[in-house]
Write the structure tokens for this entry.
Amino acid sequence: MSEIMRATAHQTSSYRHTIRVRDHELSVDEPKATGGEDTAPSPQELLAASLASCTAVTMEMYAKRKKWDISGVEVDVQYTPADRGCPTKFELVLRLPEGLPDEQADKLRIIAAKCPVHRALDGEVMFEERVERVSLA
């Protein structure tokens, strides 16, 4: 059975929220152009960050098992949300050491697409939603 992960967002001001994940906290906010204060990344920017970091870590884990040196690996993600008639678009750029053999770079490109976040975004997704009424104090 897959591990269940949890994140909880709690509003702290207009569009700013504190998110709790296990013992960690991070913040989200909206840019000023959309009414936020721009004090933190937007939720959609965090989605791009999740994909970039998961891709980088997945390649690093694979390379470590193979004893390949990919020190300084970098993943750049550009994200364009879906818009009327256009699907969501992610553009990933994998920056690998220039001395890395072509066969290893090709394999890492394949492995990158297998990161859990990439698979979640690329696969079937299900949502279950419910409303709970609580005293907000």
In short: The two ends are 37 Å apart (CA to CA).
